[in-house]
Structure formats: C-alpha cells, structure tokens
Amino acid sequence: MRVWRALKALGAGVLRDGVYLLPNRAALMSELQVQAEEVMRSAGSAQILEVDARDEVQEAEFRHLFDRTAEYQAHIQQIRSLREALTPDDAAGASAQLTRLRRDFEAIVAQDFFPGEAANQTRRALEELTQAITRVSSPDEPHTAIGQIRRLDAREYVGRTWATRRRPWADRLASAWLIKRFIDPRARFVWLKNPSDCPKRALGFDFDGAAFTHVGGKVTFEVLVESFGLDADPGLRHIGALIHYLDVGGIPVAEAAGIEALLRGAKSTFADDDPLLEETAKIFELLYLSYSKESKDEAASA
Which residues on neighbouring strands pair with residue 19, listed in sequence order? Predict the structure, then answer.
C-alpha cells in the first residue's frame, strides 16, 4: 500500500494491476527506482522497463492515461462556486479557501505531464478569483485588468456597426447575440469576406486586429463579457465556458455536442448570415434562461 500510494502521488498511469507507466524523464526514473528498491526490500520483485509506443495510436493511448481534464473540471467548479458565493463579509474566509485551491491546483499540475487548455483555463479562473477577492476586500484600491482587458461603458457603444468574418461559427455567433442582447440593442452587423474590408467606423470582433478578439486565452465572447462588466452573470459565464470549449477546447461541457449539432444544422440551413444569427440567437437565449434558472435553483437550495 505504501508503494501504491507513492506511485499514485507520482501520477503514474495504470496499464494493469502491478504495471505502472510514467513518462521517460530523469526525475521520474529516479523516483521509480526508489519504489522498485522498496518492493525488493520487502521480498518482492520489480522491473523497470523502457517502452516505446509502436505508433501514434498507442502513444495517444499512453497519453490518455495521464489525462487530468476531469480533475481540472472538478477544480474549476470549486473556483466558480466560491466566486459566485463571494461577499464582502466573507472576504477573509474566501482568501483562505483561495490558498487551498491554489495548493490543490499545483498538486494537479505536478502530475499533469502533458498539460493543455484545461490547465490554462483553470489557471485563468484562479487569477480571476484572486482579482475578484481583491476587489471585494480592497474596493478603493486600483486593480490591473486581467489580460489587459479594459472595463468599458456599454452606453458608449449603442447604435454602432459591428463587423466580423462572414459565415460565423460558435464564438462569432454567440458574441453577436451577446452584443445585441446585453451591449448594443440597436447593433447592426457587417459580415466580412476579408478582415481587411472592415469599415473604419465599425467595431470589429473575432479577428486579428479587431477591437474585440481573443485575449490572454479568453475567446472573444469571454472578452466581451469581461469588457462590459457582465462577468458576474452566472448564465453568461456558463455560456462562456461552452463557447470556450467549442472554440479552443479545454474543460468539457456536457451539452457541447448537442449545441454544436444545432449550430451546424443552422449553418447548413441558412446561406445568409443575418437569418443564421437570428436563428442561433434563439438557441443562446434559451441556453441563457436555462443556465440562469439552474444557478438560481442551486443558490436557493444551498
């Protein structure tokens, strides 16, 4: 049991009972040797073998044994729950919980030999929680915006022309819905064949050089939510997690496959982008209402 716990702490993958796998790295090899010697001191037998994946498929299977996505997913849920429950009266308690969450995150990272978007997404959530706690505990102090995202006043963005690339997909469609629904009810959209065709007075989004696009790992939808101070809305945060996953991967969202199918169906049905946006806006509106209700129900039962 002692050896088993040590191998688990190392982050070893399990091929079968008694057969454990680790990436071939000097530090891990050294630790594995220590455990092998422990087994032999207890009158057992242990062998350390170097294994090469026979092809890309087997290498993918080996890497899957070290996938920490589920752990990041559970961790980011704790982060979001703490942020949603954050109040000025409990800033000190939240800071203590933040310390624990950071420690637990580092423990996951230490065992994540092939980190990807899920790790980045969780790290950003921790940074945002840190900023939120600081704002609550020290409201009079100026704070640097995360990822250089500035807070903007939506009243200065009403009745504008917004431009993005034609034949929009998840991030652009959700961003356009967000703009029309929460930022600029009189928004007019221009669909560009090439970003260089963007009119000078238009506000571009979701392309290189646009006024609003990916920043610090956030997709355009998340940047817009943060820019206009909508990040306290749990419904929008849920949609942001969905769009982030559909656009760049990371923490899986249970309903992502179904929403992706609906969006693909709409895109194949409507050749023009205006009716496509009108139809998909119904999907995002229903998602928002559903997510918002779930959050209220969870808060009421807590």
Answer: 16
